[in-house]
Design brief:
Elements: H1 2-28, H2 34-50, H3 52-59, H4 65-75, H5 79-94, H6 98-106, H7 109-120, H8 128-141, H9 148-154, H10 157-167, H11 172-185, H12 189-197, H13 200-207, H14 216-225, H15 232-240, H16 243-257, H17 264-277, H18 281-289, H19 292-303, H20 310-323, H21 350-355, H22 368-371, H23 402-406, H24 447-455, H25 468-472, H26 490-503, E1 511-515, E2 531-533, E3 543-548, E4 551-555, E5 570-574, E6 581-589, E7 602-606, H27 607-611, E8 617-620, E9 622-632, E10 645-654, E11 661-665, H28 672-683, E12 690-699, E13 705-713, H29 720-728, E14 731-736, H30 743-756, H31 761-769, E15 771-775, H32 780-784, H33 810-824, E16 831-838, E17 844-847, H34 867-872, H35 875-883, H36 904-912, E18 916-923, H37 939-960, H38 962-966, H39 970-979, H40 1023-1030, H41 1034-1044
Parallel strand pairs: 4-6, 14-15, 14-16, 16-18
Antiparallel strand pairs: 1-3, 2-5, 3-4, 5-11, 6-10, 7-8, 7-11, 9-10, 12-13, 13-15, 17-18
Helix pairs in contact: 1-2, 1-3, 1-4, 2-3, 2-5, 4-5, 5-8, 7-8, 8-11, 10-11, 11-14, 14-17, 16-17, 16-19, 17-20, 19-20, 20-26, 24-28, 30-37, 31-37, 35-37
The structure holds zinc ion.
Zinc ion binds next to loops.
Cofactor: Zn(2+)
GO molecular function: metallocarboxypeptidase activity; zinc ion binding
Enzyme class: hydrolase
Length: about 1050
């Protein structure tokens, strides 16, 4: 056993001996040495080919072997020596050559090879073996050399290789490595353009061909070179030459013949090239003209069953979506259907921008507004409060759905002229509504009181109808509603169904069944279409189009005096068939991603179920997903944001009952009339101990009152001590629902208010500790009119706090005035918290204000914010995370961004001087931590959160009591320090938790489905190419990228 080892060692040392001989000969530079050099290199090559261990010896650290070999290559005087050395290098870099290739590159080997390639091409015909060796080495070296693209271009190697390809089309032995090298060259975009100019595409299309078993390797390399089309110029060249139809038929051919899926790589590369060509407009047109939709649709549907072909299906789907003809939304204008005349229009405000646009700037022709057809006349007469009744509207159909048998709930408050017909049913008797008895379960709900409240609610469209769910009330479901697991491939399936609209256009009905823009929209009731309705408080649905028998496209209305913010929806559906799967698509969503991609469901309320004893909003819908669609929007329609397309939210529902009336909503509805009802019920809970007072903060633009509550404990007696304690209680200031679509914030507020009015000892103790000033709905008009984000001024009220306008933003103006008054009278609130809802994150969390954690350089005098004060803002979130199961401390952030400087939280912190100034965000979806992990959130969890917030305030009192602070009770301060100790608080001090947009921070989910969506900026590059691009020398290619991006 010892002998072979000895022999190996001997040979190893022999190779080193030969190397040092070679080194000496190199230094001599004598012509007479040439023979010796040739012999020695031959011997080294032989050793390397026969003794594997010698490879390690040659390249071992400190051996200097690679330097000697490279310098011999540079100095080689004859062909045989050169070939020997190239063969040596090929041996060294072949097996496990990763590190050795690195050494080769670091010693300047790439440049030597490229120079040799170029110089030997100057004396044609070039030696074939030499070219073969050089290219074989370049294939190995190129991907490891981050400067390879630049080096190859500067040395002039690109055209040498390309010419070799051109002249050796039949010589596969040389052709193959040359094609591989071209592929590596063109990873660099500048090179790709240069190769395109030199005719690379034309040559590739000479070689490329239909399926053939013999030429699969050749095809693999040829199609890989087509990646040069990732440059726009080359894509244009290819489209101009008419290569797109060629590629499509070649793709079809390989798809047909590659039945055992052995050549998926080739098929994938062809698709990648088609995808590149369709990045440009001409390419998309050529694709459509060449029947590309049908070809890719058919090939993809044949691939669907085989999971390993998913990359082909996904790329095909991406191409088809990109080429799907772009449409405008089928609307007369994207401006809101409803318009509210403003007292004055701020010159630079969104409404002025909206209505001062030159004609043609709107996405669609704007005739309706000029005629002012849909603007309801402001009602000047006082409401006739006692004319309210539940009435029944004749439906005039033989089809007896619930709306027919029960009648629509119509409140006649004289707003629409009092002309409501059909107060009686067919039998001539007053309609009797079976109202579910929820009095025991919903102490704050009373249907009659609700109708009473509706009478004084003033909406822009002058609604008279009442939605059943709001009338009956919602009892929280006593069932777990898990966050849905996403079905594999659901988005793809939906997209294919969308594409089928083009492929099988004869199946498409395109029947408008509901249209707010055309109130007389003829609904041909043949019993085959669903009926829609959204004409009630907080309702939002603009248009419904029956696309196929059981599929509807739905369009949401913009916020009033605006042309976007489509997100909130609330509408009624009837005339359904039970047991049938209906697909609904809301086609004008705007956010680029949504919790609907992460397990959130829509909410549905069945009136039949309610009457049968289950008055619940229930999470419902299957096959839910959210993706970019083919409806385009202008940047004006996007409120100046980028983004050319709308998004579709799709969900599928099977109705249980015949003759039902069902309602769908984005989240649990909570109307303004409901708030008024709750407040009336709450005020009735007042006891001798409770001080409860309701004022009107102000009147809104729409003529509704904005309630302001004051809640505290009555002084124990009229003694001076008690009165003085009463007066010295710190103020806690709370608000909610500045954003109308965030109904969850109202449910949290309801929980807070119910707790504050309860008779528990803790509630009493809390009332004795603080004076609560509460504005439960900062944007009543937005809520009433079904807006998602804005008030009637068309503005986001939570961006107006810096300088609110008394006329345009009355609730903000008066809320801020009240805070300023409190501060001026020495009653600066201890805590300010504005309740919000969050559409893209899970759990409940808070945003606070911290100088320390803020990148924004404030003008605030930092000396007023010593460390102790600075950390006080952490106590409340920390307490909440200990007490409230839905609350997540790790999602909290305390950074103040400049873009947030006009929000309530920041203005109250900076201008009013409230250290503990927060936004509290509640998820619309569910929880991924705590007791409710994996569940969607419901109203009981939201209300519980509101109550827990109160309990946390009670505990906060211990750390903030003025008496104890006055005594400098160091023990207590230590306790607070313990509490706000940041250890164990993940992320809280991390600079990565910057909030980019208060309500929509960066999407932090683990899976990003947007990769599946039709993103034209999506780099259409394979991973290795991307890697190479990432390594591009930015200085050398920056000019190029500017030129080439002109698509
Ligand atoms: Zn909000």
């Amino acid at each position: 056993m010892n002998k072979p080892k000895m022999a190996a060692e001997k040979s190893a040392s022999r190779v080193l001996m030969l190397l040092s001989q070679l080194e000496r000969l190199n230094e001599d530079h004598k012509v007479s040495n040439n023979d010796a050099i040739r012999q020695i290199t031959g011997k080294i090559l032989h050793l390397l080919q026969t003794q594997e261990k010698t490879r390690k010896e040659v390249t071992s650290k400190g051996s200097g072997g690679m330097e000697v070999i490279l310098s011999s290559l540079e100095n080689a005087q004859d062909l045989q020596t050169t070939l020997n050395i190239l063969a040596i290098l090929n041996e060294l870099l072949t097996v496990g050559g990763g590190r050795r290739t690195g050494v080769f590159v670091s010693k300047g080997g790439t440049a030597i090879l490229l120079q040799m390639l170029v110089s030997s091409s100057k004396n044609p015909p070039a030696n074939e073996e030499l070219m073969l060796h050089i290219h074989t080495l370049l294939v190995k070296v190129g991907p490891k050399d981050r400067k390879f693209g630049v080096k190859s271009r500067l040395n002039g190697a690109l055209n040498v290789t390309l010419n070799l390809v051109k002249h050796n089309l039949q010589n596969h032995k040389l052709l193959l490595p040359c094609l591989q090298v071209l592929r590596v060259y063109s990873s660099n975009l500048v090179n790709a353009v240069s190769l395109g100019k030199s005719g690379a595409l034309e040559i590739m299309f000479e070689i490329i061909g239909p399926f053939s078993k013999k030429s699969t390797t050749l095809m693999k390399y040829v199609v890989s070179v087509l990646c040069v089309c990732s440059s726009g110029m080359n894509a244009r060249r290819a489209v101009d030459r008419g290569y797109l139809p060629t590629l499509l038929s070649i793709y079809q051919d390989w798809h047909r013949h590659d039945t055992r899926h052995r050549h998926v790589v080739i098929r994938k590369s062809i698709l990648a090239c088609i995808k590149n060509l369709t990045n440009i407009k001409l390419g998309r047109k050529a694709f459509i003209d060449a029947n590309g939709m049908r070809i890719l649709y058919n090939t993809s549907t044949e691939c669907l069953a085989v999971r390993t072909l998913d990359p082909l299906v996904n790329t095909s789907s991406l191409i088809m979506r990109k080429c799907f003809p772009k449409n405008r939304l089928p609307l007369p204008t994207i401006k809101s259907v409803f318009h509210h005349p403003l007292p004055h229009i701020a010159a630079g405000g969104p409404v002025a921008q909206l209505y001062n646009q030159p004609p043609g700037v709107d996405d669609v022709v704007d005739e309706i507004f000029s005629k002012d057809l849909l603007t309801p006349k402001p009602d000047e007469s006082p409401l006739e409060l006692d004319s309210i009744s539940i009435s029944k509207r004749p439906e005039g159909t033989a089809d007896h759905d619930l709306v027919c048998s029960l009648g629509r709930l119509v409140v006649d408050a004289g707003v629409n002229g009092g002309s409501v017909d059909g107060l009686q049913d067919e039998g001539g008797e007053q309609a009797v509504l079976e109202v579910p008895d929820t009095a025991a379960l919903l102490p704050l709900h009373d249907p009659d009181l609700y109708l009473e409240m509706v009478k004084s609610t003033r909406s822009v469209p002058a609604y008279t109808e009442v939605a059943y769910p709001d009338y009956f009330g919602h009892v929280a479901l006593n069932l777990r509603e898990p966050i849905l697991e996403r079905v594999y491939g659901v988005q793809r399936t939906k997209i294919f169904q969308d594409i089928e609209r083009l492929i099988h256009s004869s199946d498409i009905l395109d029947k408008v069944v509901y249209d707010l823009d055309n109130q007389s929209c003829p609904v041909i009731d043949n019993g085959e279409s669903l009926k829609f309705n959204s004409k009630f408080e907080s309702g939002n649905l603009r248009k419904a189009i029956q696309v196929r028998k059981f599929e509807y496209d739905l369009i949401l209305n913009s916020d009033i005096n605006s042309n976007h913010y489509h997100q909130w929806f609330y509408f009624e559906v009837s005339n359904m068939r039970p047991g049938v799967r209906y697909r609904f698509n809301i086609i004008n969503c705007e956010k680029s991603n949504s919790q609907f991609n992460y397990g959130m469901q829509v909410l549905m309320y069945s009136v039949q179920d309610a009457i049968n004893g289950s008055p619940h909003w229930v999470r419902t819908g299957s096959d839910i997903c959210y993706y970019k669609n083919h409806f385009s929007r202008s940047s004006i329609a996007a409120g100046g944001q980028k983004g050319k397309s709308y998004f579709t939210l799709t969900f599928t529902v099977t109705f249980q009952h015949k003759d039902d009336v069902c309602y769908f909503a984005y989240h649990y509805p909570y109307t303004y009339s409901m708030l008024k009802m709750h407040l009336q019920k709450l005020s009735a809970l007042r006891t001798a101990q409770i001080y409860y007072r309701q004022d009107d903060l102000c009147e809104t633009l729409g003529g509704n009152s904005c309630p302001l509550l004051t809640i505290t404990a009555m002084p124990e007696s009229s003694s001076n001590d008690h009165i003085s304690q009463f007066r010295s209680r710190p103020v806690v200031f709370l608000s909610a629902r500045v954003h109308p679509g965030e109904t969850n914030s109202s449910w949290v507020m309801k929980g807070t208010l119910e707790f504050l009015m309860s008779c528990s000892p803790q509630a009493q103790s809390l009332r004795e500790s603080y004076i609560f000033k509460i504005i439960p709905m900062l944007n009543p008009d937005g809520v009433i009119n079904g807006n998602h984000r804005c008030s009637l001024s068309g503005e986001d009220l939570n961006r107006q706090w810096q300088s609110p306008n008394a006329e345009l933003h009355p609730t903000i103006y008066h809320a801020k005035s009240l805070l300023q008054y409190l501060r001026a009278t020495g009653r600066t609130p201890l805590v300010f918290c504005d309740y919000h809802g969050h559409s893209r994150k899970k759990n409940v969390f808070m945003y606070g204000c911290s100088i320390k954690e803020t990148v924004w350089q404030t003008n605030a005098n930092t000396s007023t914010c010593d460390l102790q004060e600075d950390l006080g803002y952490r106590t409340l979130p920390k307490l909440l995370s200990q007490m409230a199961p839905v609350f997540s401390l790790s999602s909290c952030s305390f950074v103040v961004e400049r873009s947030k400087e006009a929000t309530a939280r920041v203005v109250v912190w900076r201008e009013i001087g409230v250290q503990r100034s927060y936004t509290m965000e509640s998820t619309l979806c569910g929880c991924d931590q705590g007791k409710y992990k994996g569940l969607q959130i419901g109203t009981s969890e939201l209300e519980e959160m509101g109550a827990q917030f109160c309990l946390a305030l009670l505990r906060l009192r211990r750390y903030t009591s003025p008496l104890e602070l006055q005594n400098h009770n160091s023990h207590l301060l230590d306790t607070e320090n313990d509490l706000i100790d940041t250890r164990g608080i993940p992320n809280i001090t991390s600079p990565t938790t910057y909030v980019l947009e208060e309500d929509e921070p960066a999407f932090l989910e683990e899976v990003d489905y947007s990769a599946e969506s039709n993103d034209e900026n999506d780099p259409d590059l394979e991973p290795d190419l991307q890697d190479n691009l990432a390594l591009l020398d930015p200085s050398s290619d920056s000019e190029f990228s500017r030129q080439d991006s002109v698509n």
